[in-house]
Amino acid sequence: MTENIFLIALVVLAIVALNTKKLRRAVVYLGAFSLVSSFVYLLYGAPDVAIAEAIIGSTITTVLYLVALRKYQVFSIYYANSANDQNLRQLKNEPPFLTSLEAFLIKREMEPQLIYSGEPIETILAQEKFDLAIHHTDQDIWIYGCAEDYQIDAVEEYLLANHSDLNIHLIRCAEGDDNEA
Amino acid sequence: MIDRSEIISRMTGLLYPFILLFGFYIILNGHASPGGGFQGGAVLAAVFITRYLVEPDRCIRLKTLKTAEKVLFICIILYPAFFLFSTTANHSELTNLTYLIAMNFLIGLKVCSGFTIIFFRFAFYEGGI
Fold first, then answer.
1. Running DSSP on this structure, what letter comes out for residue B91?
2. Cα(A138)–Cα(B32) distance, integer angstroms
3. CA B65 to CA A144: how far, in whole Å?
4. Model-level ipTM above the cut of 0.90
């Protein structure tokens, strides 16, 4: 009877770990999953395997995953340019404010991933998973970010301090579930 | 992990001797009860890994650990060879017991240093950022 309860708990924890939006929570659920599975090993009479599973599965792997998450934080930036043709031709070399923005993000231990998009900004806002979406028009630069992302404040402060000549407008969107980690 | 938590550092400081005791218990009782060199070594490595959570500095000496691991590996190979070929007569109960305990101990120390090296290499030197 106890075995069945813990086996059901295993399945539930696995499904929950798969369906969480945040990777950090999924790691914690995986740790709980391997703890329960080590208890199931104990119930089936394999204490050796249970000890190894409890130590490796729920301690070392969890810590390794957490360190890896902290090391590799991808920050995806969508860049849409709807200026006139002359500006579009200049797209081959990056605008200078994007280069300095990337350098700023690397300094904050993140990995900026720049995606040039030809679609209009509305479809990007509706469909893609982004951390920042940049809309470059003739005179203004519109930057869309999540309101719950704590990095946005630092990005805004940095851009206003260093590129105040560029007409940058920052808009915070309400959706926050799409971001990972 | 960046800002250190007072509670976590004090509690892990309290827990270190118990983790060490439990690890050596698992290693030294491996021949009679569940556990053994591998599991006990992993428990010992957990000491170093929790130490990284408390204060992530680079003052751990990886080179010493690497040489220790190599020396232990050579010991693990040589000791069974000597044990097998030293006496042709039947081994007594006591020599078998000491052989098992010593092998478990060597394997436990080697697994501990191996896990610690893997973890600190990953935490400090991989990823490039």
1. P
2. 78
3. 49
4. no
